[in-house]
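ARCHIVE ENTRY
Sequence with per-residue tokens
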Amino acid sequence: MFELLRQLFRRRNPTHAWMEDPSRSLTFDLDECSLNHVRLGEPLERLSFLGPDESHADFQDGVLVYRTRGLAVRYSPKTRTLLEYRVVCNDPIDMGFRSFFGTTVAKGQRLELPNLSPESLARVYGEPFWRDCDDEEVILFYEFIGLEWQVEFSLSGNLRCITVTSEPIMASEDQRLAYGVSAVWPPVSRTST
């Protein structure tokens, strides 16, 4: 019975036939919002070099998990296009994830993720659209046309993760109310590069 369920699960998972290319290093480009030049909005299959996702029994349609690489990918099951990258640095909420196994670049320069701070991010990209702070973390929301960065830090300023999404949560009035946003929406248009 378990094997039958496993086979059914494998059919739903679009990555089960993907072959990992271990010789290919990973580069996350914050400005491009891309992984190895595969941008949000592109076909999911362009990430086949990652191999099968590592979620196994907890596979969720629309989410690919690569815990050993510190990476999660969200896609549209209907269109099979990429919606979001989540690069994990040191996030206790994302239990079981190692730190991102690759290089991160921004403005053509390599970023040392463990050294990234809210202040250094603001020096390069300006002040965020919104800063949310609670008793566990600080989230900086950077808004662009059809794009959002969510950069999460611990209260001590250590980077936890970076999420780039083509479905900005701040575009939802309900979400802005939930976060207590007082900034005017939509923000002044900016591009990520």
